[in-house]
Amino acid sequence: MSLALLCPGQGAQHPAMFDRLRDVPAAREVLDACRRVLDRDPVDAAAADDRFDNAQAQPLLCAASVGHWLALRERLPVPTLVAGYSIGEVAAHCVAGSMGPATCLDLAAQRAQRMDNASPRDAGLQAVLGLQRAPLQALCQAHGVYIAIANGADHFIVGGSGERLQALAGAARALRAEVRPLPVHVPAHTPLLASAAESFARVLAQAPLQVPRLPVLAGIDARPVRDRAAVVHTLSAQLAQTIEWAQVMRQLFERGARVFLQLGPGTALARMVAADYPCCEVRAVEEFQHLDGAADWVHGALDRVR
C-alpha cells in the first residue's frame, strides 16, 4: 500500500496559506520564485483581495503545494503517485520532478495569462450537484455550457459565459440540483479556451521540462504521464478539455494508493477522496498545526493500512 500526494486547484486561497512555510529553509526557493513572478511577497498576495484573480491565484497555489512538498520531502517516504486538480497538475509535475520550482511558478503565471487572454468576458465556472452526467450534459448542450470537471457521479463543474451559466443554473435547480458559483472567472477546461491550450503548448515545448521521476496521473484521462512529450500534451490539453477527476481518484486507488495527503491550501481534494474511498487514510496538510504532525500522520497511516 502506498502514498499519493494531491495538489489542489483554485478556490481555497486564504491569508494564512503560507503560515507553515515562512521559516522553513527548504521552502525558500519556491517562495522567492513566487515573489519574482507576482512582484510582491506571496504572504501579502495571499491576504490581498485579488487572491482569487487568475493571475494571482495560479502562482500562489503552485507555490503553496510545492512549498509544502519541499518542506516535507525529507520527512516522508517516497510517494508512489502524484495528481493535481486543474492548476494543481502543474504543481504535481514539480513535485514529481518534471520541472524545478522556478519553472513551475513561471509556467503558472504564463498559464494564467493565456487563459485570461483567451477567456470571453463575463465567463466562469459553477458547481452542479445532484444531477447525473447524462441529464447534465443535455442541459449543457441546450444552454451552450460545457462540463469542465467531473468530480463524481453527480458532482460536476461547468463552464461558460455568465448569462448561459445563469440559464443553466435555473434549469438545473428546476430538476432539484444544487448550483454554486465558484470564484473562478475563466471557463477553464472547456473548448472556449482552445486558443489558450494551443498557446500554452508552445510555451511548454520551450520550457526546461524533464521526464517525471514519479508517475503523475493526467487530469484529462487519468493515465500516468511518463515522458516529456506527454507532460507537454496533458498540461496544455487540459485547458480546453474536461478534467476527469473521478477517474483520477479511481486510478489512484486501483494503483494501490491507500494513504492520501493533500498539499497546499484547503481540504477539498482530501474530502472527495475520503467520501468515495472510506477505506483509505486521507488528510490535508492544513488539518495539522505543524508540518511535523503531517509527517507523523503519514508514517502512522502507512503502518495502519499494511
Commentary on this structure:
The chain is an alpha/beta fold and 306 residues long. 47% of the residues lie in helices and 16% in strands. The protein contains 12 helices and 10 strands. It has helices at 28-38, 42-47, 54-72, 88-95, 101-118, 133-143, 162-174, 194-206, 228-237, 245-254, 268-276, 291-305, and strands spanning 2-7, 81-84, 123-129, 146-152, 155-161, 178-181, 216-217, 224-225, 257-262, 281-284. Helix 1 runs antiparallel to helix 3 and helix 3 runs antiparallel to helix 5 (101-118). The termini are close together. The model has no long low-confidence stretch (mean pLDDT 97).
Main attributes?
306 residues; alpha/beta; Malonyl-Coenzyme A Acyl Carrier Protein, domain 2; Alpha-Beta Plaits; 2 domains; 6-stranded mixed β-sheet; 4-stranded antiparallel β-sheet
Strand and helix map with partners:
Elements: E1 2-7, H1 28-38, H2 42-47, H3 54-72, E2 81-84, H4 88-95, H5 101-118, E3 123-129, H6 133-143, E4 146-152, E5 155-161, H7 162-174, E6 178-181, H8 194-206, E7 216-217, E8 224-225, H9 228-237, H10 245-254, E9 257-262, H11 268-276, E10 281-284, H12 291-305
Helix pairs in contact: 1-3, 1-5, 3-4, 3-5, 4-5, 5-8, 6-7, 8-9
Short description:
This protein has 306 residues and is α/β, with parallel strands linked by helices. Helix content is 47%, strand content 16%.
